[in-house]
Known about the structure:
This protein is of the alpha+beta class. It has a domain at 226-334. The protein contains seven helices and 16 strands. Strands 1, 3, 4, 5, 6, 7, 8, 9, 10, 11, 12, 14, 15 and 16 form a 14-stranded mixed beta sheet that branches. The chain has a two-stranded antiparallel sheet with strand order 2-13. 29% of the residues are buried.
Amino acid sequence: MKNINWFIAAILFSSSSIAADFPHRADVEARSKAVGVGLTKASLLHREVGPGAEVAASQLLTHWANGSGPITTAGTYSKMIQGNNKLLFVGNKGWTLRVYADGTGVEYRNFPYRKAHLAAVPIDKQPTLSGLDAIGRDFISKNLGGLVSLGQNDAIVGHSVRYERLGSQAVDGSPATTSTVGAIVTYSRTLNGVDIVGAGSKIVVMFTADGTPWGFSYDWPTYTTTTTQQQVLPLTGIRKRHASLISNPANLASDTEQHFECGYYDVGVRYSKRDSNALIQMACVSQRVVAMVGDTQRYQVNQDNGLFRMGKVDVIPAGVDISSDSSWPEALQISGKGVGTNSSDPGANASN
Length: 352
């Protein structure tokens, strides 16, 4: 009798994400790296208190109560209070809705729909930035218009896209494949032509690979312009301040800045330690990747090995005089009110 060997080719899967920036963000970064904020003086902003978590939740629950698509609040749900900062609604069909603080921060997810629609597409067939932008803006306009409003001098701008990727490799040695299973689009905001940096004034729409929205979140307040004026440091002063905030470890291998964006800084309502009395003022946000040597022997043989990496985000105050904000560690350190403070401001005497 002839022997037949049966086998099953096992598949190994891994997931990752690939980020892409909209042209507007690239322009903001280029300007920020060249001139900083690009203003010598600015009027500070006041973040108005929102409608309240209960009011915002009621609007959203009602809007999608009869929905049968991926974003729905149909069916019964339970309501929970999580700390002093948010309400959580959990639908019997698996959707979740979180409403933060004063109602200006919201997060909705429908993970059961997402799990059931993980179909992948080849990378060359994935939704384009312009295509996702159009669908995202249409979704915002039709569904969030009453809660995500714009002032006369405001604009929603494309910020970034993160494509969700899935890779597979057969153990029989067949070529590995990578496909796209979704995308997460982030929008930001400009006010009088100045960008809002930080977690505030952001809208996120989550898509399946075919461009269907299945989740969203936003942090979107109303701002009023105050009579308080702030003199703005030139780029040299901002960079000197930034250097004073960085404390490099002895085992540092590299410190690479990935993004640098300047404008009005809003920490967002979801930050539990946020100072609600603080005005919105000028800052630059630096996102860095810091690599440190964890295995000296491996690193000495090959400087691409033996490392561990971590992301760092520094928010550098850009005003000559820093407006009071008890929840901003870098501002407290520069002004001499935080742990590890400097005896003098290294950027205060910088000139153009």
